[in-house]
Recover the amino acids of this structure.
């Protein structure tokens, strides 16, 4: 009985911390072009990017509620911020195709989501931080 109660308390605490941490890093912004996130092609529009470092995932969702979950390849150090309050979505551009490759948080390290081999350009979308 004590083990079950202790396990319930631990699971509740971990869930609460994960939810609170994830909510703190919800960033919203407008992506002005069609792009690929994971294996899904998404249209231009407003998106929420919600990193979950504990699970190694970034959720990309529309205001209508549809979402794509992208696996994090690795964390990135030494950010590309223009100001401390900036968040950035970085897209690798090959021809006319954009692929979500990085998410950078305000005052934090980034998340590498995709590696494009060969010649490509980085296209950075500045996203004001929102909670």
């Amino acid at each position: 009985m004590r083990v079950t109660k202790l396990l319930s308390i631990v699971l509740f605490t971990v869930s609460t911390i994960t939810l609170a941490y994830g909510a703190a890093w919800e960033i919203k912004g407008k992506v002005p072009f069609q792009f690929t996130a994971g294996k899904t092609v998404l249209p231009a529009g407003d998106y929420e990017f919600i990193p979950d470092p504990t699970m190694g995932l970034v959720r990309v969702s529309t205001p209508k509620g549809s979402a794509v979950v992208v696996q994090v390849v690795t964390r990135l150090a030494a950010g590309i911020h223009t100001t401390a309050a900036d968040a950035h979505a970085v897209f690798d551009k090959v021809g006319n195709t954009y692929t979500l490759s990085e998410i950078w948080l305000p005052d934090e390290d980034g998340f590498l989501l995709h590696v494009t081999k060969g010649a490509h350009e980085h296209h950075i979308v500045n996203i004001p931080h929102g909670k």
Q: What stands out?
A: Residues 14 and 61 are 24 Å apart (CA to CA). Residues 3-23 have pLDDT under 50 and may be disordered. The two ends are 39 Å apart (CA to CA). The chain is about 20% helix and 45% strand.
